[in-house]
Amino acid sequence: MVVSTVRRRRLGGVLRKLREEQRLTAEVAAEATGMSQAKLTRIETAHTAAKVEDVNKLLDFYGCDNEEYRAGLIAIAKEGSKRGWWLSYRDVINSTTIDLILLEAEATTYKTYESAFIPGLFQTAEYARLAIDRLRTMKGGTVDDLVQVRMARQSILTRPNPVQVWAVIHEAALRALANRPDVMGPQLDKLLTLGRLANVNIQVMPMGAAFHPGMNGAFALLGFPQRKDLDVVFAEALLAGCWVEDPADVELYRAKFQEITAEALPVDASIEFITTQRGRIS
Fold first, then answer.
1. pLDDT tens digits, residue range 193-234?
2. What is the pLDDT of residues 101-117, one digit of tens each?
3. Which of 191, 196, 269, 277 makes an SS bond possible with 265, Cβ 3.0 to 4.6 Å?
4. Residue 135 is part of which domain span?
C-alpha cells in the first residue's frame, strides 16, 4: 500500500489522540478491534499504512461520530489503493517528491509563495530543465526524467475538479533569465494562460513591498476536503523540503499567507504586470 508518509503520520497521530482522549491503552483498543497491539502501535507511529477496515473499527470503538472528520480520515486510508503515474519514476525521485505528488493529487487547495522561481506547477519544460539542471542536489535520475515528473504534476490544474491554486510570485522571479528570452518569453506566456483558468489566481509581490512573512522562504500550503486540521505545509530547503504537520503551525502559515496576499499586487494588476513584462522580452 502506497500512502504519503506525511498523511500516514497525520492519520496515525489522530488515531492515537482519539484513543488517548478515551483514556484507553493500546492493548485494550487492539483487543477490542481484533488486531494485535503491535499492529496498532505501527499504525499510530506510521510504520504501517492503515487499512480502511481497521480505521473504521478504531473510529467506531473510539465513538467518533463526526461524519465529516471521519470521512477525511478514511480518505487518507483509501489513498493506498490508488496507482499513480509516478510509479514509473519511483527509482529516480526521492521520498519527499513522492509525498508531494501524492498530496498534490489529493489536495483541493494549493496556496504557495515563491520568492525566486516560477512555481513548479506553472513551469514550462524548458524553464524546469534549466532550474533542475542548475539547482538539483540529489543524485539519481536524469534531468529529462525529472522534467517529465514536474510536467506530469501539472495535470492537477486541468483535471476534472481541479485543485484551486493561489500563487504569489515575487517580481524577481518574473525578471529572471533576462539573457534567455527564448525561455522566459514562453514561461510568461504560460503564466498568462494559466491565469485565465477559473481555478488559478496569481499575484505578484513587487520589489518595493514592505517586510512580509514570505521573506522567510518559499512554501506551499496544501488543503484537503473535510477538515482543515488535516492540511499540511511544504517548506522548501536546499537539500530537501520539510513538512509542517502540526495543526497549530499549519494555521500560522495560513494566517501568514493571508498577510502575503495582502501585501502583493491584486490579481488583475498582477496579470497586467506580467503582460507588461512579457512585452519587454524580444
1. 999 999 999 999 999 988 999 998 999 999 987 667 789 999
2. 888 988 999 999 999 99
3. 269
4. 89-279
Integer angstrom CA distances of residue 193 from 30, 97, 150, 204: 53, 26, 18, 15
pLDDT exceeds cutoff 70 at 138: no
What is the C-alpha separation between 37 and 30, in angstroms, rounded? 5
Nearest to 248 by CA among 226, 231, 266, 227: 231
Q: What is the pLDDT of residues 234-246, one digit of tens each?
A: 997 655 678 898 8
| Burial class for 220, CB neighbours closer than 10 Å (0-12, 13-18, 19+) | buried
Within this chain, do residues 76 and 94 fall inside the same structural domain, yes or no? no
Of 49, 81, 113, which one is at a domain's C-terminal end?
A: 81
Q: Are residues 241 and 171 in the same domain?
A: yes
Consecutive H or E run containing 234:
strand 232-235
Q: Is the pLDDT of residue 36 over 50?
A: yes
Q: Give me the CATH number covering residue 34.
A: 1.10.260.40
